[in-house]
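Q: Convert this sequence to structure tokens.
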Amino acid sequence: MPDRALRGPRRAALPLAIGAAGLALALGVQLVFDPFRTHLPLCLVNHLTGLECPGCGAIRAVHALLAGDLLLALRSNALIIAALPLGGAGLGLWAVRRARGLPTDLMPSPRVLLALVAVAVLFAVLRNLPAFWFLAPISYVGG
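A:
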């Protein structure tokens, strides 16, 4: 049975604050920056090799999602759009477990970690192949 001092809604504040900060940051970027009108070379992998990494197009995907355009968001980076609800569910689970005073091991098991890395690598390889053109992010401004 968890100790009573390690339980309660106040313990859920950390994961909820992290989620709120991430959302606030995304909304702040949404207000001051449009990645579809301005090109900022943020990806070092793309800049040096010309290849699209698993994160290329993530800012455009989140921007499009916050603007309400799910199809454009998926076209920009489907992996990030699929990961957002999973990340939100993870933060919610973390908050509930902390509030109940249960142990909260944030590191996934080695199998889960290996599976996540495999998905990211597979996504990176496929989005750079011509047959999977629809996984590559949309072209940059003026590109």
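The chain has six helices and no strands.
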